[in-house]
Design a protein that fits this description.
The chain is an alpha/beta fold and 315 residues long. The protein is built from 11 helices and 14 strands. The chain has a single domain, classed as Ribokinase (UDP-N-acetylmuramoyl-L-alanine:D-glutamate ligase, 3-Layer(aba) Sandwich), CATH 3.40.1190.
Length: 315
Protein backbone atom coordinates (compact mmCIF):
# COMPACT_ATOMS: atom_id res chain seq x y z
CA UNK A 1 0.00 0.00 0.00
CA UNK A 2 1.50 3.39 -1.01
CA UNK A 3 0.75 6.94 0.02
CA UNK A 4 1.56 10.24 -1.65
CA UNK A 5 5.11 10.38 -3.00
CA UNK A 6 6.26 13.97 -2.57
CA UNK A 7 8.91 15.45 -4.84
CA UNK A 8 10.93 18.59 -4.13
CA UNK A 9 12.49 20.52 -7.01
CA UNK A 10 14.34 23.56 -5.71
CA UNK A 11 15.46 24.84 -9.13
CA UNK A 12 12.93 23.76 -11.81
CA UNK A 13 13.21 24.77 -15.45
CA UNK A 14 11.35 25.11 -18.69
CA UNK A 15 13.19 22.82 -21.11
CA UNK A 16 13.37 23.90 -24.73
CA UNK A 17 14.44 21.22 -27.19
CA UNK A 18 15.80 22.48 -30.51
CA UNK A 19 16.66 20.16 -33.40
CA UNK A 20 18.73 21.11 -36.44
CA UNK A 21 21.08 19.41 -38.86
CA UNK A 22 24.25 21.08 -37.60
CA UNK A 23 24.97 23.92 -35.17
CA UNK A 24 27.49 26.51 -36.38
CA UNK A 25 29.00 28.82 -33.76
CA UNK A 26 28.80 32.51 -34.62
CA UNK A 27 26.26 32.01 -37.42
CA UNK A 28 22.50 32.00 -37.85
CA UNK A 29 21.11 28.55 -37.07
CA UNK A 30 17.60 27.64 -38.16
CA UNK A 31 15.98 24.67 -36.46
CA UNK A 32 13.41 22.27 -37.88
CA UNK A 33 11.88 21.36 -34.51
CA UNK A 34 11.32 23.21 -31.25
CA UNK A 35 9.59 21.88 -28.15
CA UNK A 36 8.86 23.45 -24.76
CA UNK A 37 8.18 21.35 -21.68
CA UNK A 38 8.33 21.48 -17.90
CA UNK A 39 11.65 20.26 -16.52
CA UNK A 40 13.51 19.48 -13.33
CA UNK A 41 14.41 16.11 -11.81
CA UNK A 42 11.84 15.97 -9.01
CA UNK A 43 9.12 17.55 -11.10
CA UNK A 44 9.64 15.01 -13.88
CA UNK A 45 9.58 12.18 -11.34
CA UNK A 46 6.15 13.39 -10.16
CA UNK A 47 4.86 13.45 -13.73
CA UNK A 48 5.95 9.85 -14.30
CA UNK A 49 4.65 8.70 -10.90
CA UNK A 50 1.27 10.15 -11.85
CA UNK A 51 1.33 8.44 -15.26
CA UNK A 52 2.01 5.14 -13.53
CA UNK A 53 -1.14 5.53 -11.46
CA UNK A 54 0.29 6.53 -8.09
CA UNK A 55 -0.38 9.57 -5.89
CA UNK A 56 2.17 12.37 -5.92
CA UNK A 57 2.64 16.01 -4.99
CA UNK A 58 5.26 18.29 -6.55
CA UNK A 59 6.78 20.98 -4.33
CA UNK A 60 9.51 23.56 -4.82
CA UNK A 61 9.94 27.14 -6.02
CA UNK A 62 8.67 28.80 -9.21
CA UNK A 63 8.74 32.36 -10.51
CA UNK A 64 7.41 34.54 -13.33
CA UNK A 65 5.94 33.56 -16.68
CA UNK A 66 8.15 30.49 -17.01
CA UNK A 67 6.96 29.31 -13.62
CA UNK A 68 3.37 29.83 -14.77
CA UNK A 69 4.12 27.66 -17.83
CA UNK A 70 5.22 24.82 -15.55
CA UNK A 71 2.10 25.13 -13.40
CA UNK A 72 -0.07 25.04 -16.53
CA UNK A 73 1.68 21.91 -17.83
CA UNK A 74 1.25 20.09 -14.53
CA UNK A 75 -2.42 21.08 -14.46
CA UNK A 76 -2.87 19.69 -18.00
CA UNK A 77 -1.41 16.36 -16.86
CA UNK A 78 -3.35 16.25 -13.60
CA UNK A 79 -0.21 16.36 -11.45
CA UNK A 80 -0.95 17.91 -8.03
CA UNK A 81 1.48 20.65 -7.06
CA UNK A 82 1.98 23.32 -4.40
CA UNK A 83 4.97 25.43 -5.43
CA UNK A 84 5.99 28.55 -3.57
CA UNK A 85 6.42 31.72 -5.63
CA UNK A 86 9.80 33.47 -5.76
CA UNK A 87 10.96 36.68 -7.41
CA UNK A 88 12.58 36.36 -10.81
CA UNK A 89 12.02 33.91 -13.62
CA UNK A 90 12.20 30.15 -13.37
CA UNK A 91 15.14 29.27 -15.60
CA UNK A 92 15.04 28.21 -19.22
CA UNK A 93 17.27 25.30 -20.27
CA UNK A 94 18.03 24.72 -23.94
CA UNK A 95 18.86 21.29 -25.41
CA UNK A 96 20.31 21.41 -28.93
CA UNK A 97 20.09 18.22 -31.01
CA UNK A 98 22.30 17.99 -34.12
CA UNK A 99 21.06 15.26 -36.46
CA UNK A 100 24.22 15.15 -38.63
CA UNK A 101 26.59 14.53 -35.71
CA UNK A 102 23.97 12.78 -33.53
CA UNK A 103 25.10 15.11 -30.80
CA UNK A 104 23.28 16.85 -27.95
CA UNK A 105 24.45 20.06 -26.28
CA UNK A 106 22.86 21.57 -23.20
CA UNK A 107 22.70 25.20 -22.07
CA UNK A 108 21.63 25.53 -18.44
CA UNK A 109 20.80 28.88 -16.83
CA UNK A 110 21.28 29.36 -13.06
CA UNK A 111 17.69 30.15 -12.07
CA UNK A 112 16.27 32.71 -9.62
CA UNK A 113 17.86 33.31 -6.25
CA UNK A 114 16.12 31.68 -3.28
CA UNK A 115 16.64 32.93 0.26
CA UNK A 116 17.39 29.99 2.62
CA UNK A 117 14.66 31.36 4.92
CA UNK A 118 12.12 30.25 2.28
CA UNK A 119 12.82 26.63 3.24
CA UNK A 120 10.60 27.21 6.29
CA UNK A 121 7.60 27.46 3.93
CA UNK A 122 8.70 24.32 2.10
CA UNK A 123 8.93 22.38 5.36
CA UNK A 124 5.45 23.55 6.34
CA UNK A 125 4.08 22.16 3.07
CA UNK A 126 5.95 18.88 3.63
CA UNK A 127 4.41 18.56 7.08
CA UNK A 128 0.90 19.09 5.72
CA UNK A 129 0.82 16.00 3.48
CA UNK A 130 0.96 12.31 4.42
CA UNK A 131 4.20 10.94 3.03
CA UNK A 132 6.69 8.20 3.71
CA UNK A 133 8.93 8.87 0.69
CA UNK A 134 10.25 12.23 -0.49
CA UNK A 135 12.32 12.71 -3.64
CA UNK A 136 14.81 15.57 -3.53
CA UNK A 137 15.76 16.25 -7.14
CA UNK A 138 17.98 18.47 -9.23
CA UNK A 139 20.37 21.32 -8.65
CA UNK A 140 20.16 23.82 -5.83
CA UNK A 141 18.79 27.26 -6.60
CA UNK A 142 21.27 30.15 -6.29
CA UNK A 143 21.34 31.35 -2.69
CA UNK A 144 20.80 27.92 -1.13
CA UNK A 145 23.85 26.40 0.63
CA UNK A 146 25.41 23.14 -0.52
CA UNK A 147 24.25 21.56 2.75
CA UNK A 148 20.55 22.07 1.88
CA UNK A 149 19.76 18.50 0.82
CA UNK A 150 21.66 17.07 3.76
CA UNK A 151 19.73 19.26 6.18
CA UNK A 152 16.41 18.29 4.59
CA UNK A 153 17.32 14.59 4.78
CA UNK A 154 18.14 14.89 8.50
CA UNK A 155 14.89 16.79 9.17
CA UNK A 156 12.76 14.30 7.21
CA UNK A 157 14.42 11.22 8.71
CA UNK A 158 13.52 12.52 12.16
CA UNK A 159 9.90 12.30 10.96
CA UNK A 160 10.35 8.71 9.69
CA UNK A 161 10.41 9.79 6.05
CA UNK A 162 12.68 8.00 3.58
CA UNK A 163 14.54 10.27 1.16
CA UNK A 164 15.60 9.64 -2.42
CA UNK A 165 18.22 12.13 -3.58
CA UNK A 166 18.76 12.63 -7.32
CA UNK A 167 21.33 15.35 -7.74
CA UNK A 168 25.01 15.82 -8.56
CA UNK A 169 28.21 17.55 -7.48
CA UNK A 170 28.31 19.43 -4.22
CA UNK A 171 24.53 19.18 -3.72
CA UNK A 172 24.71 15.37 -3.74
CA UNK A 173 27.92 15.29 -1.69
CA UNK A 174 26.17 17.43 0.92
CA UNK A 175 23.40 14.84 1.24
CA UNK A 176 25.55 11.72 1.60
CA UNK A 177 26.60 12.14 5.22
CA UNK A 178 22.92 12.48 6.21
CA UNK A 179 22.39 8.86 5.07
CA UNK A 180 19.52 9.17 2.57
CA UNK A 181 17.59 6.00 1.80
CA UNK A 182 18.70 6.05 -1.83
CA UNK A 183 20.74 8.10 -4.31
CA UNK A 184 20.66 7.69 -8.09
CA UNK A 185 23.56 9.28 -9.95
CA UNK A 186 24.35 8.31 -13.53
CA UNK A 187 27.86 7.11 -14.38
CA UNK A 188 29.08 10.64 -15.13
CA UNK A 189 27.67 12.08 -11.90
CA UNK A 190 29.06 9.21 -9.82
CA UNK A 191 32.44 9.60 -11.51
CA UNK A 192 32.47 13.33 -10.81
CA UNK A 193 31.70 12.71 -7.15
CA UNK A 194 34.43 10.08 -6.79
CA UNK A 195 36.98 11.79 -9.02
CA UNK A 196 37.41 9.02 -11.58
CA UNK A 197 35.95 7.56 -14.75
CA UNK A 198 33.44 4.73 -14.36
CA UNK A 199 33.44 2.26 -17.25
CA UNK A 200 31.49 -0.99 -17.21
CA UNK A 201 29.66 -3.00 -14.58
CA UNK A 202 32.68 -3.78 -12.37
CA UNK A 203 33.57 -0.09 -12.07
CA UNK A 204 29.94 0.82 -11.43
CA UNK A 205 29.68 -1.83 -8.70
CA UNK A 206 32.80 -0.56 -6.96
CA UNK A 207 31.58 3.02 -7.25
CA UNK A 208 28.15 2.14 -5.85
CA UNK A 209 29.69 0.38 -2.87
CA UNK A 210 32.01 3.32 -2.24
CA UNK A 211 29.09 5.76 -2.30
CA UNK A 212 27.26 3.44 0.07
CA UNK A 213 30.21 3.60 2.47
CA UNK A 214 30.07 7.40 2.23
CA UNK A 215 26.56 7.34 3.65
CA UNK A 216 23.75 6.29 1.28
CA UNK A 217 21.74 3.25 2.39
CA UNK A 218 21.21 2.22 -1.24
CA UNK A 219 22.86 3.40 -4.45
CA UNK A 220 21.65 3.02 -8.01
CA UNK A 221 24.02 4.05 -10.80
CA UNK A 222 22.17 4.40 -14.10
CA UNK A 223 24.06 3.39 -17.23
CA UNK A 224 21.79 4.54 -20.05
CA UNK A 225 21.03 1.82 -22.57
CA UNK A 226 23.22 -0.58 -20.55
CA UNK A 227 20.74 -0.51 -17.66
CA UNK A 228 21.75 0.13 -14.06
CA UNK A 229 23.68 -1.22 -11.10
CA UNK A 230 22.00 -1.19 -7.67
CA UNK A 231 23.55 -1.84 -4.27
CA UNK A 232 21.50 -1.96 -1.08
CA UNK A 233 21.74 -3.31 2.47
CA UNK A 234 20.58 -6.77 1.33
CA UNK A 235 22.46 -7.28 -1.91
CA UNK A 236 23.39 -5.97 -5.34
CA UNK A 237 21.62 -6.23 -8.69
CA UNK A 238 22.13 -5.55 -12.35
CA UNK A 239 19.16 -4.29 -14.37
CA UNK A 240 19.28 -5.03 -18.10
CA UNK A 241 17.31 -2.47 -20.10
CA UNK A 242 15.12 -3.69 -22.97
CA UNK A 243 16.33 -2.72 -26.42
CA UNK A 244 14.41 0.28 -27.78
CA UNK A 245 14.87 2.75 -30.62
CA UNK A 246 16.15 5.82 -28.71
CA UNK A 247 14.70 9.23 -29.53
CA UNK A 248 16.00 11.28 -26.59
CA UNK A 249 17.50 10.44 -23.21
CA UNK A 250 16.22 13.66 -21.57
CA UNK A 251 14.22 12.66 -18.51
CA UNK A 252 15.17 8.98 -18.57
CA UNK A 253 17.04 9.21 -15.27
CA UNK A 254 14.15 11.11 -13.69
CA UNK A 255 11.80 8.38 -14.88
CA UNK A 256 14.01 5.74 -13.27
CA UNK A 257 13.80 7.66 -10.01
CA UNK A 258 10.00 7.55 -10.27
CA UNK A 259 10.08 3.75 -10.44
CA UNK A 260 12.55 3.51 -7.56
CA UNK A 261 10.40 5.81 -5.41
CA UNK A 262 7.25 3.80 -6.17
CA UNK A 263 8.92 0.57 -5.06
CA UNK A 264 10.27 2.22 -1.90
CA UNK A 265 6.82 3.63 -1.08
CA UNK A 266 5.11 0.28 -1.64
CA UNK A 267 7.57 -1.77 0.38
CA UNK A 268 9.34 -3.36 -2.60
CA UNK A 269 13.03 -4.22 -2.53
CA UNK A 270 15.74 -2.53 -4.59
CA UNK A 271 15.46 -5.20 -7.29
CA UNK A 272 11.78 -4.30 -7.80
CA UNK A 273 12.69 -0.63 -7.89
CA UNK A 274 15.26 -1.33 -10.60
CA UNK A 275 12.66 -3.25 -12.60
CA UNK A 276 10.09 -0.43 -12.46
CA UNK A 277 12.68 2.29 -12.95
CA UNK A 278 14.39 0.64 -15.90
CA UNK A 279 11.08 0.19 -17.73
CA UNK A 280 10.14 3.83 -17.10
CA UNK A 281 13.55 5.07 -18.21
CA UNK A 282 13.46 3.02 -21.41
CA UNK A 283 9.94 4.27 -22.11
CA UNK A 284 11.15 7.85 -21.87
CA UNK A 285 14.11 7.14 -24.15
CA UNK A 286 11.59 6.05 -26.82
CA UNK A 287 9.94 9.49 -26.86
CA UNK A 288 11.27 12.53 -28.77
CA UNK A 289 12.67 15.77 -27.28
CA UNK A 290 11.92 16.15 -23.55
CA UNK A 291 8.75 14.02 -23.53
CA UNK A 292 8.37 11.44 -20.76
CA UNK A 293 7.28 7.81 -20.89
CA UNK A 294 3.71 6.86 -21.64
CA UNK A 295 1.85 4.31 -19.53
CA UNK A 296 1.27 1.98 -22.48
CA UNK A 297 5.01 1.91 -23.29
CA UNK A 298 5.87 1.25 -19.65
CA UNK A 299 3.40 -1.66 -19.49
CA UNK A 300 4.85 -3.17 -22.68
CA UNK A 301 8.48 -2.78 -21.56
CA UNK A 302 8.14 -3.98 -17.96
CA UNK A 303 8.06 -7.73 -18.79
CA UNK A 304 11.20 -7.26 -20.91
CA UNK A 305 13.34 -5.88 -18.08
CA UNK A 306 15.77 -8.41 -16.57
CA UNK A 307 17.04 -7.86 -13.03
CA UNK A 308 19.66 -10.31 -11.77
CA UNK A 309 21.76 -10.65 -8.63
CA UNK A 310 25.01 -8.96 -9.54
CA UNK A 311 27.28 -11.99 -9.28
CA UNK A 312 25.18 -13.81 -11.86
CA UNK A 313 25.18 -10.75 -14.08
CA UNK A 314 28.96 -10.36 -14.01
CA UNK A 315 29.99 -13.93 -14.79
Amino acid sequence: MSDTIVTVTLNPAVDEGVALESFVLGDVNRCFLSNLDAGGKGLNASRVIRRLGRETLALGFLGGVTGAMIRARLDEEGVPHAFDEVEGLTRLNVMIYESAARRRSRIYLPGPRVDPARLVELKARLESVARRVVVLGGSLAPGLPESTYGELVVWLKAKNVRCVVDSSGAALAGALAARPALIKPDVEEAGELLGRTIAGDDDALCAARELQRLGAESVVISQGAAGAIGVGPHGAWKAHAPSVLPQSTVGSGDSMVAGLAIALSEGGDLGEGLRLGTAAGAGTAMTPAAHLCRREDFDALLPRVRVEPLRAALR
